[in-house]
Structure formats: structure tokens, C-alpha cells
Amino acid sequence: MFFRPNKLYILPTRAGMGYCFVLLLLLLLSVNFENNLAYALTFLLTGVFIVAMHMTHSNLAGVKTEFAAAEACYAQDMALFNLWVSSQRGRDHYQLTASLPNQPSITFDIHARCRDKIAVPFHALERGWLTPGLLKIESRVPLGLFKVWTFHALNGKCLVYPQPVNYSISTGMEQGYQGRGRTSNQDGSDDFQGLTDYQAGMSQQHIAWKVFARGQGLHVKRYVAEQDAELWLDWQACIEPGVEAKLSSLCYHARYLTSQQRAFGLRLPGQTLAPAMGPEHLRAVLTTLALFGKESSNAKNTA
Q1: Contact of 23 with 46, CB cutoff 8 Å
Q2: Which among 45, 93, 182, 192 is placed 20 to 30 Å from 207, CA to CA?
């Protein structure tokens, strides 16, 4: 069945069908016994039924939605699509329910002349770009005798990163995590390496005065800085078989290295990111992992 966006549909609920059955029984009793009080009760309840239908329809009519943003998430987590909701008629709307196809729903109100923000959940199963589809908004206010609903198109998408899983890694990557580095030949201030003969222009702060006092000549203390070797998250270093398992492993270790404030690079088949550190670099790495193999398939589908 095809539904057009922004069109309202209304049907009686199960309670509404039961209400109609009671009205039919009252009408039959009124006709059979020719009781004026029964007629009055039947017409009164019928009027309530009609008013409830108009109020239920009015509670949803004029609702406007606008896509705001969708924060990136990880596979198997809940993606949140943020929407701005408002009333085109400048009135209040109560107990509205919004949901995406086959997803949990949320309940919200809209205040007159206000622009409220809601977050609609979507269970992200796979990495890549997530398109939510049509947003369903419905209402059963005030008596629950009718259900009115409509569909709104969401012009937005959400980026889903691979699920981070701590799979085993190769020996080369393990050594990198242990912080083994190489000693720099440049002067530093970390570790004392030894003494060297004093030459003109050297800093006097590093002169070994105790050695000079013992009559062993003028020497300068030499320090070197230890720098970590470049760390690379390499596709070939992942032991787990399968594309998704490798991406999950790389995702986990990228987050771990960022939490440890370590610089690292990423090597994928056909793609390389230079070593860097920080939240921006992590975001670039996760985006590359999320779209690995997806962009080419999307290009083939659109061709």
C-alpha cells in the first residue's frame, strides 16, 4: 500500500470499533422498545464519537518536521535522528508518537508557536551511510477511539562506524602498543647518555662542574630524547578473517590509541592516512573505515 507524505490517514482503533458496536446495540434497543431516553443516549454517544474523530484529526493536522542533524554512531548501536518539530497552525499538539520503519517510537508534545527538537532512534545494524526512510507520526488523542497518522520524508542520513571489537592483532602491532621506540640522535632532555668534550658555543647549563673540579677537564652532559617509532594500523596486520572483523579490530585500536594520546596512521588496500593524533584524526580514520568498500558499490549502483 502506497502512502503519500504529509497526507493524513484516519481509522477507528479497536476501542473505536467496540464503541461503534455498542452504539449499534443501543440503536437497536431504542428502535425495539421505542424508548426516547435510549434514543437520546444513542445520539449523545454518536455525537461524542464524531467530535472525537475531528479532535483526533486536528491534533495531528499542521505538524511540521525539519531534519536537523544525525550524530555518527557505531554499528549495533542506536542512531539518533534529530528533528525540529513545530505547528503550522500555532496551536498545541499533544501525545504525538514518532517512529521510523520497524524501530522504537518516541512520544512528544508540540507547544504553540515553539520550535521543539526531538531525537528519533534507529537501530544501526551495518556500517556506512544510514538512510532512515519515511518518518511515521500518529496520534490517538483525546479518547483513543481513532488513530490518525501521516508520513514525513527525512532528507538526511547518518554515518555508522564499524562496531569496535578487540580482536587479536599481530606481533608488530603489539610491539607498537608497548611503546617501543627509537633513540633520537638529536639533543633532548629525557635521558642522560654520557659526557662529551666542551666546545665553544655549547650551553653552560650542561657543563659537568663536578668532573671539572676533579681535574678531568671541561665536559658537557649529553641528553637524548626517546621518540616512539611510527605506529600504523595496517589491514595486513589484522589476524581475524573477513572484512567486517578486520574493520572492527582497526576501529577498536584506533579508539584505544587516541585515548592513549598516541599518533598513528592507517593503511587499507588502496587507502593510506598519514600518522597523526587527536579527535579530528580519529574521526577521519573512523570515517574511512565506515565507508571502506561502500563508496565504490554505491557508485556502481548509481551508474
Answers
A1: yes
A2: 182
CB 97 within 8 A of CB 107: yes
Residue pLDDT, tens place only, 281-292:
999 999 999 999
What are the residues whose beta carbons fall under 8 Å from the beta carbon of 302, sequence distance 6 or more?
none
Do 68 and 209 belong together in one domain? no
| Backbone torsions φ then ψ of 196, nearest 5 degrees | -140, 155
pLDDT digits (tens, 9 = 90+) for 1-36: 445 567 999 999 999 999 999 999 999 999 999 889
232 has which bridge partners? 265
In angstroms, the CA 59 to CA 61 distance is: 6
Domain that holds residue 191: 182-228
Residues 29, 121 within the same domain:
yes
pTM of the model: 0.74
* CA–CA gap between residue 69 and residue 75 (Å, rounded): 18
Integer-rounded Cα radius of gyration of the chain? 34
The number of folded domains in the chain is: 3
Average pLDDT value for residue range 86-94: 92
Q: What is the CA 84 to chain-centroid distance, rounded? A: 17
The reply to whether 152 and 32 lie within a common domain is: yes
Q: What is the DSSP letter of 242?
A: S
Q: Tell me, yes or no, whether 92 and 206 share the same domain.
A: no
